[in-house]
Amino acid sequence: MSILGKLSINAFPHDVITLGGAIMMIVAILIGIFYVTYTKRWHWLWSEWITTTDHKKIGVMYIFVSIVMGLRGFADVLLMRVQQATSVGSSHGILSANHFQQIFSAHGVIMIFFVAMGFLFGIINLVLPLQIGSRDVAFPFLNATSFWLFSAGMVLMNASLIIGNFTYAGWLSYPPLSELKYSPGVGVDYWIWSLQVAGLGSLLSGINFLVTIIKLRCKGMTLMRMPLFTWSVFGTMVLVILAFPILTVTLALLYLDRTVGTHFFTASGGGNMMMYVNLIWSWGHPEVYILVLPSFGIFSEVVSVFSRKRLFGYRSMVWAIWAIVVLSFIVWLHHFFTMGAGSNVNAFFGMMTMIIAVPTGVKIFNWLFTMFGGRIKFNASMIYFLGFIFLFTLGGVAGVMMAVPAIDYQLHNSLFLVAHFHTMIVSGVLFGDFIGIMYWFPKIFGFKLIDFYGRVAAYLWIIGFIVAFGPLYILGFMGATRRLDHYPAYTGWQSLFIVAGIGVGIIAIALVFQFLQLIISYIKKNENFDTTGDPWDGRTLEWSTSSPPPHFNYAILPEVESRDAFWEEKQRTDKNVQDKKYEDIPVVKNTPLAMYIGAMACIFGFCAVWHIWWLLALSLLTIIVLIMIRTTDEETEYVIPASEVAEIDKKVQWKV
Amino acid sequence: MESVNTQIQQVPKYDKTDDTIVFGFWVYLMTDCVLFAALFAVYAVLHNNTFGGPDGAQIFSPSYVLVETIALLTSSFTCGIGLISAYNMQKNRVIGWFSVTFLLGLSFVVMEVAEFSHLIHSGDSFKRSAFLSSYFTLVGTHGLHVTVGLIGMLILIIRIYTKGLTKASVRRLTLLSLFWHFLDIIWIFIFTIVYMLGFS
Asked: Is the CB of residue A291 less than 8 Å from the CB of residue A426?
C-alpha cells in the first residue's frame, strides 16, 4: 500500500457532468477568494468570523453554509427532474444510472444534514441565548467547535465531487449494497465520514444547548415561563442527545465492516443487515422530529406575534412537544413494515405512528385558535405559515395512511412516500426556517427584509410545491417507485413527471425572489433600519435588546415575572425607571483553535476514506494536542469593564 | 465525623461556571451511555450468530476476566479516595492515589489487549463471526474509553505535579472521576451480559 493509501490519479473525475460540477465548485471557491482579497477583507474575515465564539455570528455562519449547500442540493433536484422527465422508452436522459444514483444520494444527505440541520442550528444559535436572557451559550468554544465540525463534514462531502465519488447507495446507504463487496469504491466511506464528523458537531451542540437552557435562563424565567421556541429546542436537544450516539455507532460499525472485515451487516459470517436498518432508523426517526420541532417553535412565536394574541394553549403545546419527544423513539419500524417483523410488531408500530399524529394535531389546532379573533398581519411569514398548515395537514394525513401496515405494503418505496416526506420536510421544516430567518433577520442585522419579495416567494413556493409533488402522489399510486433513472413509455408516467419538473421550475423562480429579497433589502437597508430593537411588536425577551445586540447581548441581565415577559413589560403603565447598575462582563476571547480542530477533523475523515493511516494518526494527535492547549489555557476570557458596558449601552439607547 | 466535616469545608468552592461544566459533563456521559446501549443491543442481536466459530463459553476464561474486573473496580475505589484528597487539597496524596488508579487501569488495558491478541492469534478474530465482531467492538470500545481516561489521567497527574492543585485541576479531577466511575458501571454490564451469560 502506498503512502497515499487508496488515493491515486484515477480518483479525479472523468465524465463530463461530474467534471463540470467539480470545475464549477472550484471556480466558485476561486471567485470567493478573489473577492475577499480584492476587497481586502481577509483580516476582517479572520478576526470577525473565523475565530469568533459569539453565538450570533456562529449562527449566521451556519445559515450561510446552509444556503450555499441548499443551492447545491437544488442543482441535484434540477438534474433529477430533467432526467426523470426525459429518460423514458428509448431515450436515456442526461445522466448515467450510476451518476443518477450518486445524485439522489447526495441530494438527501445535503438537504437533511447540511441544509435542514444547518438552518436549525443556525437559528437556534441566533435566537436561543437572547430569548432566555443569557449572554451566550454555556460553552462558547464548544459551540464554535460544533460549527467547524459541521463545516468539516460539509467540505468532506463536497470533496467527493472532485476526488473520488459519492455513495450511490441512497441517503441512508443500506447494506448489503453499501458493504464492501457491492460498493468497493470510496463513495460509502465519504458518506460515513462526512456524517460522522458533522454528526459529532450536532451531538456537541445538543449537549451545549441543553445545558444552556437548563442553566443559563435569566432570573425569574421558570420552565413554564419559557417561550415556546425555547421549549421546542429543549425537546429537540433531548432528542439529539439520545439519538445521535446511535448514528455514530451505526456508521462506525458499517465502516468496520468495510475496512477491517467484521460481520455486523454482511450477508455472510452471521451478520444481520436488517439490524442496520433498525439502528439507522432508531436514529433516523427521532431525527425527523429534531428537524421539525424547532420549526414548530418558530411557528408558535410568529403566529402569536403576527396575530397579536397570546399563544393559545401554552401548556398543551409544551405537553405536545414532550409527547412527540417520547413517541418519536417508538415508531421507527414504520419505515420498514415490509421487513416482515410479523403482524403484531407491525401493528404496534402502526398504532404508535397514528398516535404521534395526535400531539401534532393538537399543535395545529392551537395555532389556528391563536389566529382566531386575532388582528392578523398578513405578511410573508403568515403566508408561509398558512401554506404550512395546508400542506402539512395533507402530508400528515398521507403519513397516517401509510401508518397502516397493509397500505404501506402497497406504498412502500413508491413515489407516494417520496411525496409524503417532502411535504412534511419542506412545509414543516423549510418553511419554518424561512419564517425564522425573516422574523429574526432585523434582530441580527439591524434592518428589515422587504416583505413584498417575501410574499411573492411564499406564494411561488406553495404553488410550485403543489405542482411539483402533486404528481408524485399520483405516480406513487400508479406504481412508480422511487429512485428510477429510467422507465418504459407504456407506463404513461412521462406527462406527470414533466408536470413535476414544471413545479420545480416554479420553485426555482421562488428561490430567485428569495435572493432578490436579500439583495434589494440590503441595498435599500437605509429605509428599513430597525431603530427600536422591536420591529414586530414582539413578545419575548430577544426584542428587548437593541438590533443588532451588543456582543454581550444584554448590558443588564433581564428579569422576568411572567410568560411573554417583554409584552407584559410594554403593557405596564407604572414603569419603575431605576438607575442602571452596570457590571463587568466576562467574554470569551476569539480563538482559531475551534477552526483548527474542524480542519483536522476534515483531514482525519479524508484519511479514513482513503486509508492514509499515517496522516490519520497525525491528525488525531494534532486534535488531542489542540484540545490540550485549549484546556490548559487559563486565560480564555477577557473582561469588558462596567464603564465600557455603560458606554456601549448608552450609544445603543440613544439609537433606540 | 466532625473532622471529616471540617475537611469538607475546605473543598474549593465551585463557582457557577464549574457547576455548569460538571452538569454538561454529565449530559455528555449520558450520550456515551446511549452509545454503549446501542453496542449492547448489537451484541444482544448477534451473540448467537457464531457462524460455526466458537461461542462465548469456549473462548472466555472466567478467572482471567475476574482479575481484570477486580483491577478496574479497585481503581474506581482508589480514584474516589484520590478525589477526596483533592477536595482536602492534599497534593501528594492526590498524586499517589491517582498513580495507583493509573497503574490499575493500565493493567486492565494490558490484560484486555493480551486477551484480544490471544484470540486473534488463535484464529478467533473479529473477522471470524458476527458474534466475535460484536464482542470485540463492545469490549474494545470500552477499552478505548479506558485508554482515553488513562491519557487524561496522566496529563492531569503531571500538571498537578508541576503546577500544584489549582481550582481548575480539582474540577478536572472531578470530571475524570465521573468518567472513570461511568466506565466502571459500563464494565459491570459487560461483565454480566457478555462474560457471565457467556460462561453459562
From this structure: no
